[in-house]
Amino acid sequence: MKKYCKKEKLKKVSGILLLIFFISMFVFITDARFGYTEDKAPVDCYKDMAKTVTHISAAGLGEILKGVKNEKERVEMIRSFIKPVRFYPDKSGYFYVYDYSCFNIAHATQKDLPGKNLYDHKDVKGKFVIRELSAAAKKGGGFVEFYWVKPGSKNEFSKLGYVEPIPGTNYFIGTGVYLQ
Fold first, then answer.
1. Owning domain of residue 50
2. Nearest to 101 by CA among 172, 175, 160, 162
3. Total structural domains within the chain
């Protein structure tokens, strides 16, 4: 029995690593193909990239989590998956995962958020950010404009977030584009 469990866990970890590899390759190829530069990145291209990497990640995580019934193990797998992923030339692209009640499951850059319920969190303009992201995910996915702390800063910047549900779970995954 233990040998089987180790084999299954190894398969899931391998799946996560493979998914991270494919996302990294997609981002690398896309950056090179469109000639992105840090100071001259078209927002529409970044929006397309955000939508694509989120969709790939949601689908992959949904598949990987299919056979995992233990909630703690599911959360650990999600956290392991999103932790190393960064994209865009300035590395400001990262993932976050919430459940539909606005409970943070994982956040790649703000390590203090996992385990917190952000249902009542408002950005600097008074928008209930996570509520709106949750509503967009419940509709199958979409973009939401809000303000959020940019990695490497203490201030909130305008951001266009994109979220999608993770199939077979009560979670949604998202990323975004910090607007100039």
1. 2-178
2. 172
3. 1
Q: What's this model's pTM, rounded to 2 decimal places?
A: 0.80
What sign results for the dihedral spanned by CA atoms 57, 154, 157, 35? Answer: negative
| 60: CB partners within 8 A, 6+ apart | 15, 19, 22
Digit-by-digit pLDDT tens for the chain (180 residues) are 444 455 565 556 556 655 665 565 555 555 545 455 555 457 888 899 999 999 999 999 999 999 898 999 999 999 999 999 998 888 889 999 999 999 999 999 999 999 999 999 999 999 999 999 999 999 999 999 999 988 888 889 999 999 999 999 999 999 999 887
Paired tokens of 2: 């233990």
| CATH code, domain carrying 61 | 3.30.450.20
Distance (Å, whole) CA 138 – CA 127: 18
